[in-house]
Each structure stands twice: as C-alpha cells, then as structure tokens.
C-alpha cells in the first residue's frame, strides 16, 4: 500500500470544491480515502458548528463522488474536524488516501502508513474515565495491526476524535443515577480528550495502565502521550482513531516524524522533528525544503502554571477569549515562523498530550532520496 | 548621557510593585525616568481600560517616588500603554531612563539614546489627517535633536501614542460642522495610528511629504515607515513621541537595531535585527545570547489581502475576536519562538508601519564587547 | 388560500426533527411550504455559519419530504436564517405554509396572507446602493400582487434576506474598476440591509423614491420603513422577499399586526400591536392570550446616539461583543418580559427599519372570534 | 437618621465628575457617604479591571473631598463595583448617604435605612465554604443591629462583595496542603457568591444553618435568599456587606421593597415590587411614577436547566460570550421594558440568590405621601 496526503485549502466549512477538483483530475481517488482531518474556522469550543457543517459537506461530496450512501461513507472514512484558526492559522483539509501499490516496497525503507479504528459508543458516565481509556487503547492497537505498523517506535501521530457531554447528556446520566466526569459541557471536552490521550499512551507503552485510575484524568499532568492528538466534538458518541506511522510494508515517498514541545514556544522540538525528516530547520526554510513539507500537526494548550518560561500569560484569566483559542494562535505563530506557512493542523486542548503547556508536533514530509 | 531600559513584569494593570522595588534598591532612579512603555492585558481596542488604569497607577507611584505632583509627572514622562496580551504575550512595563554619565562616551561608539516630544492637542477633525501627520513629523525631529541622534539612519524605533475619537468627540466635530476621518470609534484608532506613522515616515525621509494628502491615510499601503510604532488610546488628545536610536553622544552598554517584517511570520527579518545586535539567531538562542536581549518591540497587523503567503487567514472575517487581537497573538508567537521569551512589546494596528500585514521589529540588546 | 405558521424549536442549526415530525403527523404539508424563517445560534455577524448550515439542512430535509431536487426546493421556498440568540432568545424555525382552502373566505374578514419574490443577483458594486433599493421595491410590489394584499395598509411585515460583501467580492469589484458601498465585510451587511429596507419603504409609500440617493443609505436615519426586516447573509447574491399581511382573499384564523418601537425598550409599541391583535397586554399575559400568540418578529439595533432615553449605553464601544449582539439580547429581553416567551424572531441590524435605535415589531396571532 | 440615594451616570470607570459636582453643589455630603454601588462596563468576569479602576478613582476622589486618607476612606465606605453593562445597561454609581436628621421620624412610618459590615479576610480554602457562610451571616446581623432594622421582614436587599480565587491564591492553598472549593478562577467567583448568599439567607432565617454544609454550596439550588445580591471581585479578601431595609428609626421620603423573579423574564415579580412601593406597573410607567423610581437592583443568571419556560436558551453553551453576560443583558432588557430606564443595577451570578435562573429584584422609590 501507499499513503498519500493532500493538503487542500478551504474557503469555508462547506467548501468541497478543492476535493472535487482533485478527484476530477485523478490526483485523488475518492474511493481510497480513509480519513479527512480538517481545520475549520469556528471557535473550537462548545458551540462550534463549523465542524459539523464541514463533516456534513464532506460526507455529501464523497458520497456523490463514490456513489456510496452517506451511511457507507460515514462507516468507511474517518472525519476529524478541529475547530479554531486563531492567529494566522489557515482553514484546510488533510485528506489521507491508502492506495494499492503495484510495486513491492523497497526493502529496508519504511514509508508513511495509516490505520483507522473506532471504539463503541460511550455512555455519558464513561466519558473522561477508564472505560474510555481502555477502549481507546484497544482501538489504537487494532489500527496498528491493521496497518502493519511494527511497533510503538514507528507510531508518530495518533489522532483521536472523541465525544463531549452536552447538557442533555449530562442530565441523562443524572436521571439514570450516574455521576459524570465533568458537570459542564466545556469541561467535558477536556476530560474526554484527556482519557483518549491516556488510551493512546497505554497502547504505545508510554504510560502503565495499571497505574491509571479515573482521578488521574486531567489531574496528573506527569502522565502523557508523545504522539496523541485528541479533539472533542458534539457530533459523535464513540472515539474514532487514526494512527499514522512508518512501515516497511508500505511504499511511497512520504514519511512522518515527531517530537514533543515542552512549552508553547518550543520550536527547538519542531526543529528536531524537521531534521529527522531530512529538512534543515532555518529562518526561513530553503525553498526546496519548504516544498517537501507536506503537513504539520501539533497540539496547543495554555500551561496551567499560568506562565511560559517564567513569564506570566493571561490565557487562563481571560473571560473574553477562551484559553484554547489563545493557545492555538500562539503555537500556530510559533510553528509558522519556522515552517513558513500557516497551513498547519494545530488543535487545542492538549490534556495528557505532551507535558503541561506543551504538546506533540508531527511532520509529514516528502523523502529526499531513496536512501533516507 | 546613558540610556537604561528596565523590563518589569506586571501582575496586573495596577501592579507597580516591581517599579517600587527597583527604585528602592537603587537600580532605577525614578527622577531620571523619561518614558514607560507598557503591555497591559485589556483587549487593546476601544473599551480597554487597562491602559488608563496602568497609566494612572504608574503616575501615582512615580509621583510618590519623586515627590512631584501628578501634573509634573504627566508633563515630564511619556506613558505609552499598549493593550492586548493575546496568545502568550506577557504583561510588562519597559522603563526608559536617561542617566547622566560621569565618563565621556567612547569615541566612535554609538550607544542607545532616547528622546521625547509631544504635539499640541488635536481637534477631532484633525485626527487621521495631514494636520496630525505634520505635527507628528515636527515632533519627531524635535525629539531627535534633543537627544543628539545624528540622523534618520540612527533612528531604529519611534513610538507614538495618539488619540482616538469617541462618540462624544465625533459628535462634537459634527456639531461644529466638521467631518471626521472615521465615523466609528474603532476605525478612528486606525486613522490616528496611520497618520501618526506617516508623520514619522516624513520626519525620517521614508515618505515624501509633498506626495501625501488626507485620502492616502490608511488607503495607500505602499507608504510606510520602517521604524514607527503607533498606539491609540482614549486618554489623550495629542501625540506623544518617543524616539529610540543610537548616538555617539551617549554611552552605556545598550544598543538598538531594527528590521521590517514583510508579513506576520517573517522571522527572517527578526533574525537580521538580532544579528545586527550581535546575537546569533538560533532555535533556541544560546543562553548567553538570551541574556543579552533586553527588549523586543514589534507591530502586528492582519494583512488586508486576507492571506499570508497565499494561505487564507480568518482574522478579518471574525466577528468574535477583533483582527488586531488575532494579529498580536500570531506575531507574538512567531517572535517568541525565536526570542525564547513572551515578554515582548507587540502592539497592534500597523497602519503605515511597515508593509501591509507586516511591520517593524526592533531589538534592544546589551553589547557584547567594546568594539561592536 | 389559507396561511399557516408553525413555530418549531430547534436543538441546533441542523435540527430538522421537528419539521419532519410535523410533516409525518400531517400537521404540516411540506409541498405547501413557501418560506422558513429561522433564528439560529451563531453570532449573527460575518463568520456565522449556523445560517448556512441550517439552510442546507432544511433544504435537504424538505427535498426528501417532497421528492423535489435541492434546486427545486431552493427556487420554490424562501429560507431566511437570522443568526444570533443572545440573552434568552431561543433557536427556532417559523415555517409559513400557503394551503388551498375549500371554503371561500368570510366576506369582510381579512386573514393572514403571505407572498414571496426575488430580485436578480446584484453585482458587488450595486449592494447598498440605489440599484438594490429599486429592485427590492419592485419585488415587494410583485409579492403583494401575487398574494392579493390590497395595499400598503394591509402589509405588516416584510422580511428581506440580502447579500453581503466578502473580501473576495470587494476585491472583484475593485479589479473591475468599481467602488463599493462598504470596504469592510461587516459594514457591507449594514448597507445591504439599509438599501433593502429603503426598497420596502419605497414600495409601501413610506419614503419618496425621488428623494433617495446612494449617499442616504445608512446615513439619513429619518428615512425608514415601519414594516421592513432585513437580514444579511453570505449565502446569496440576490434579495429574497417575504411579504406578510392581511387579505380578504385569504381565510384561516390567523392575522398579523405591527407597530414601531421608538427605542429598544419601547414595549408600549409592542403592547399596541398586541392590542390590535386582540391580546390584552399585561404582566404577565393571561394564559388564554398567551396561547393565541403565534409569532413575534422584531428588529434590534444599538442607537447611534449612544444612549437610550438619555442614559449612555456601551454597545457601540464594546470591542468584545458586537453591538448587534447586545441589541438582540436587549430587545429580546424587553419583548420576552411582555410576551412571556423567548421564542421570538428578533433580528439585528435595523438600518432604515424603524427609527434609530428602534424598529418594527409584528405580531401573528390566532383570532379570538369571527368578528375581529 | 435619613438615608439618601444618588444615582449618578458614569462616562467611564474613572468618571468621578458627577460625584464631585453633587458634592460641590451641596446635594451630597461626601463625609456622610456609607456605600457606593457601581455598574461598570467591563466583562464582569475574571479579567474585569473596570471594577478596580472605578473603586480606585472613587476612593481618590472621596479622599480629596473629605480630607481623609485613602486608608480611612477604604475603612469607612463600602465600594461594591459590579462589572457588566451588556445589552442596554447604563454605567452608573449609586451613592448611599446616611445623614443625621434634625426632626424625629414620623411615628408609625418606616423609611429607608442602611447598615454596613465586614467580615475578616478569608483564607483561600475558606472561600465558597461554611466559614464564609457563617462569617457573612454574623456580619449581616451586625449590620441590621447597627442600622436599627427591626427584623428580617424589614430587610429588602443585602449586597455582598466577596473575594475570588486567583491562580496565585489557589496555588497558595495547595502549597499549604489545602483543597479549595473551586480549582478555576471563574468557578471560584460562583462559589464565593453562593456561600455569601447562603450567609445572608441564614441571617434572615430563609435557610436553616443546621442543614447547610460545604457540599450544598452551588449545588442545592432549592436553598436561596430572596434578598441577597453577591458580587465577586479580585480586589478584596473579605466579605463586605450593605444591608438595605426600612426602619421606624429612620426618616426621609425613600423606601425599599422587593420580590423574587422566578425566571429571567418574570416581570410580574418586578410589577409586584413596584406596586408595593406605590408605583403602578404599566407599559409605560406614568411620568409621575417614573420620577419616583430612584433605583432598581436585581440579579441575573442563566438557568441551569438550559431553558426558560420550556424554550431552550444558548447561554450555557456559548463559548464566545460568558453566560453571565447574556443573563445581564436579558434581565436588563426585561426590567428596562417596564422601568423605562436602563440605569439599572443588574448584577450577574445569582447562585443561591433567588431560584435557579431567577433572582431578587428590589425597588428604591420616593414615597408618594405620608400614609404609605
């Protein structure tokens, strides 16, 4: 198999013209699409309907392009929309294709590989708790196996889309006599992302499952995954997972690397991920290197400490702009200053996704030569 | 004379404890303070009262420390508060001192020099028009002369604080039969900053005064200063100006450099300014270099084109967060990723301050050795 | 014919379950729907995608229910989504049906009547100018004729959905050598609404067309319609019009009345409209009267004077919340305090729709007895 | 004694010109001022610095007018600033004076009376818990005794200003090994207001102290005061209390009444409070009645149920505008529609202040004749 990644700018949440054009030209095979990650321009918080609007529009378009029903598209393709293009971030879709390859992979060369999986739907009282952790870990392992990714060291990015709790769902749990992990909708997004990330960490051996318990979720910030990126949305009840890594069973000229930002401005970590992908970090990047950069995926979060390298930030005390919006703008600016583009998949809410205030950063790049 | 710059973190708009502590320790001579630039944590737009609160608090504190009246402090010291610490920007004050120096300056070595000036108060109908341009240009020249800065090449940063038009002032003009350059308060901040920046450009020979006219303000984006930084506030009626440059008549171990960012993520320009100051741009900076970085001052603005290097941004279409807030977060992130600190004086609204979507960036640094 | 109005609560922009249920039960005939007005929960400003999402969802649902294509639905039904449910306003759809009636109308009794029309698509440079005014006036007259509404006195509410100018459309006009009525997207919504309302006023004889010119739009606030309600959206290029009045040619138990609020808290005007509809205004309404109230439609706007009955408001100086959002919350609260419900169609931006700071308020009610 | 109330419009948080004018004219005796309640135009949430700016400005002005030190002013006068003038609410100060009266009170006639008290400073771990409840109850009783208010039935309004927990204070508690009632600053405002209101309820016999415990705060919404209004701010560590009632020991032509709104649009409750004060509720009020209305004080809150009279509201799911801002706009609109003025002291956050989604509303009015 061969993995392809298309970065398609979007003029709005319902802009599927770019997708249609690529399909029309033959550059993209709609029936081979396995996942679409999107940055949409809502607030990325509770009342962000751009995610649902984009998902609905993409599903309708892909159903028309493939002749499948909407339900089939929904079951076969992972749609992960992350709201929030604060600062200079640019709305876009990342379309992942898995294409059969006539030639066998070059021996000894690992290439970009993708795998998908889903958990069962969660009851409201399971969100943000060990049930969500365990089901996510199992799904990550299943996705790795399905995509012939040999082991945790070859996994560089795991995207999870997870549910949130609306007031209606919180009340449903209460009526059934259950407590929930978060009593407010906004807070529920955090615990759902946190439990999902811990599930990834368990699957990859980053965190010991036996040491985990409900109370650790969103509290013990020493526990985290270096690869997970979780995004919460109102439009689903289960966890949907995309594992991205390198595999000797796949071919093609793409590869993925990653590192972990220790704080929101840790571009040294980004520089290391670029270097591992064969791109020399520089201000600015050389044009040839820029051209090889296919996608950047990172998490953003306001540090709970209230400061960055000792200097106070005001994100957590701002009642006009949610902290996650500040954080995306900040990390987007930091990464764009090196990458030279604002077409970056920076998503907010990095609970257990890297250390407090930091987060994973992954680079998908075109390989320089055969030997890399 | 010798110029000193103190970068003092602020826990809130009325936090003058840091100033008092420095004065108490003798590290800062309150009677020698010529200007205070501050980043405060309001929205940086119309209803940002953190600027006024900080100014009032600083004036009261400096009056108490110097034994002067509030009116004397107001007449002798320039207070320029810039609201908005979006993304990770950290609230702080930059206190500029001009201290008599026992020793004569080292021949052939230019050191940091500062000069202040004020225009007359402007009538509402003058704001954003040629009257404001001309008065600002004259004041910049006066400040250069007063501080023995030899010529435009030695000027690296000109801060202007300028008035805005409240509804009351707009109606006052209308009643007197005058039109105004902007009918809305928020828009008036833009034209006031724009005319002020053009005034700087005229003084420094960057723009030919004879080619200017009212209609060019905030419209002809090809006209701009490479040094100006203008900030609008409700608390004043005149323009207040701080010219910062290097001068052979001054001594001390500080110097200032600058460059112009062509867009919001142009950290190559920042890297050049750092290099000119003897600091090697790297991700991250070497610890010794970090220690020599005293202050970074930059402008931020959403490009009117609606895009950054060809990728659409959503700043101008966002009705939840003003574009200037997005822009400060973005540029703050871009600069912090190189500088390694969020204690950056990034102010919004860059009309005629650098090219569309870009802006000047200045670096105040401690000199490495005698010879620089 | 008989006009029916269904007020359907919405759990989200894409919640069409209520519509489907009514159609399923036979209470609503989907093939007879002529218009859907909706209050959706976005910000009601530029980047409000809830309007487009709701329209798309409603169109898909009505296409499925009627067996028509999406294009047919779009051509036959008017969809007018007004964003913004600030304060306590409750998201809902108002579905207007025109149903053939077996019995002839009772002589001498006028009943609720509805008529629709559309203008041609406008070029960017026509928006907010006399071309839009004239085309709207013609369309209003056409809708009156089509629905047998005898004259202006029988018209009580005219809803216009009108286009806005995106950055792309503004630049398109500039490239073609045209100026536009507003250089900023947000401002373009105002001039589009203003020109549309003046078109209604011309059609109803409220304003003399010969006295109008481009410069009067959004400037001469003495010119206004007492019936118009205009709402701007990104999803259309033409004006779409719904005229609602009473007609002797229609039957049924519904009627419409209206009055004009002189300011945002002028509930005396609302009380008069209720009285004309046979409902005794009281705090609270009698239960029987509440039950007869089918819909309330009103406009909300921050007064340009900056005050309400002499007391300063802060809506126009607030850079955190757009003025139109404040105004909807305020008028929604004022009307709900009398109506006893928050299911109110209060839309923002009342340029030339009632006097400055006020606006039309219309009441659709069930008639008490035959004789009314 | 005689209580006087001055309602002074404010052009900004630091506008003390109205206060100075009244003092200059002799209409107000600055040395007799016991309390100033203010509506200021910040966001009313965590980073609202307009409250502190207004307090600082008023203190400086009153110190200058009375010749007292700032510390004396601070110890003798209660300053309670409530941020948030959403919708049409108009910034203003309510200045309460207690003036010695030459004549004895008319026997059998109760007039407006005011009493103040303060608790000790609370440790972070006490905020939102029984320690705050008990100390507040004791202070309310002390204020009643000091002002000769005979019993709970004569108390109509109790204003409490209470502290919040900043990140620094939360961490201080954690370092000392204590938990806190709320881990987030914004949430801490709620529990502080809630515990304060329960303290008022205990003092007035509205809630049985023996039934209270830490876990009931902000959870058991069946427990509430019908008179309490609590407002949280960063600028104090203790609770400050103003009790307002009627007393036979006081004279003057003012009186106070109150009722409880069952939801945000319950103007029937407001109508009852007006009636009790001798004002006929009408749409609009008769001019003579309007003239007698001196002040309206009310609480606003988004109902946790997510609906108002069965219709969904979007306040709790809005990540762009905090729920308390929506609620103030809504209740302000509802009350203004009856009162005919937007100079209303509507403050947000009504935990245990009236039922869920509702809140107390108090009316201070000029008495019609002797006999009332």
| Percentage of residues in strands of chain A | 25-35%
| Order of strands, widest sheet of chain A | 1-4-2-3
Cα radius of gyration of chain A in angstroms: 19 Å
Q: How far is the N terminus from the C terminus of chain A?
A: 19 Å
Would you count the extended β strands of chain A for me?
14
Percent helix of chain A, as a range, is 25-40%
Overall pLDDT level of chain A: 95
Give a quick summary of the entry.
The structure is a homotetramer of 372-residue chains. Chain A has 372 residues and is of the alpha+beta class.
Tags for this model:
homotetramer, 372 residues, alpha+beta, 4-stranded mixed beta sheet, globular
Can you characterise this structure?
The structure is a homotetramer of 372-residue chains. Chain A has nine helices and 14 strands. Chain A has a four-stranded mixed β-sheet with strand order 1-4-2-3. A four-stranded mixed β-sheet of chain A has the order 5-8-6-7, with helices on one face. A four-stranded mixed β-sheet of chain A has the order 9-14-10-13. Chain A has helices at residues 17-25, 50-66, 70-76, 130-146, 167-175, 185-203, 267-276, 287-292, 323-339; strands spanning 2-9, 33-40, 78-83, 92-99, 111-121, 155-163, 228-233, 238-247, 254-261, 293-300, 307-308, 311-312, 345-348, 359-366. Helix content of chain A is 30%, strand content 26%. The two termini of chain A are 19 Å apart. The first copy, chain A, is an alpha+beta fold and 372 residues long.
């Amino acid at each position: 198999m061969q993995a392809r990644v298309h970065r398609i700018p979007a003029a709005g949440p319902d802009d599927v013209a770019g997708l249609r054009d690529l399909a029309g030209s033959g550059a993209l095979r709609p029936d081979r699409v396995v996942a679409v990650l999107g940055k949409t321009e809502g607030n990325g918080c509770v009342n962000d309907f751009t995610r649902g609007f984009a998902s609905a529009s993409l599903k309708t378009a892909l159903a028309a392009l493939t002749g499948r029903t909407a339900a089939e598209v929904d079951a076969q393709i992972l749609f992960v929309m992350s709201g929030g293009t604060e600062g200079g971030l640019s709305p876009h879709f990342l379309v992942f294709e898995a294409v059969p390859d006539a030639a066998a992979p070059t021996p000894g060369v690992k290439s970009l590989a993708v795998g998908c999986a889903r958990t069962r739907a969660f009851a409201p009282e399971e969100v943000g708790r060990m049930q969500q952790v365990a089901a996510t870990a199992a799904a990550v392992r299943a996705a790795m196996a399905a995509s012939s990714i040999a082991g945790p060291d070859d996994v560089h990015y795991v995207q999870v889309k997870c549910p949130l709790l609306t007031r209606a769902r919180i009340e449903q749990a209460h009526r059934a006599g259950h407590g929930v992990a978060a009593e407010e909708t906004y807070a529920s997004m955090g615990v759902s992302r946190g439990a999902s990330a811990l599930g990834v960490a368990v699957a990859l051996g980053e965190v010991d499952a036996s040491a985990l318990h409900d109370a650790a979720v969103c509290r013990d910030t020493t526990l985290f995954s270096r690869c997970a990126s979780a995004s919460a949305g109102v439009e689903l009840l289960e966890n949907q997972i995309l594992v991205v890594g390198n595999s000797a069973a796949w071919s093609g000229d793409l590869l993925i690397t990653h590192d972990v930002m220790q704080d929101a401005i840790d571009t040294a970590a980004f520089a290391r991920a670029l270097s591992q992908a064969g791109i020399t970090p520089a201000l600015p990047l050389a044009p040839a290197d820029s051209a090889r950069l296919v996608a950047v995926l990172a998490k953003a979060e306001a540090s709970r400490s209230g400061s960055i390298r000792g200097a106070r930030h005001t994100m957590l005390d701002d009642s006009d702009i949610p902290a996650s919006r500040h954080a995306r703008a900040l990390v987007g600016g930091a990464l764009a200053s090196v990458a030279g583009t604002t077409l970056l998949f920076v998503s907010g809410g990095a609970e257990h996704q890297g250390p407090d205030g930091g987060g994973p950063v992954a680079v998908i790049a075109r390989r320089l030569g055969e030997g890399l």
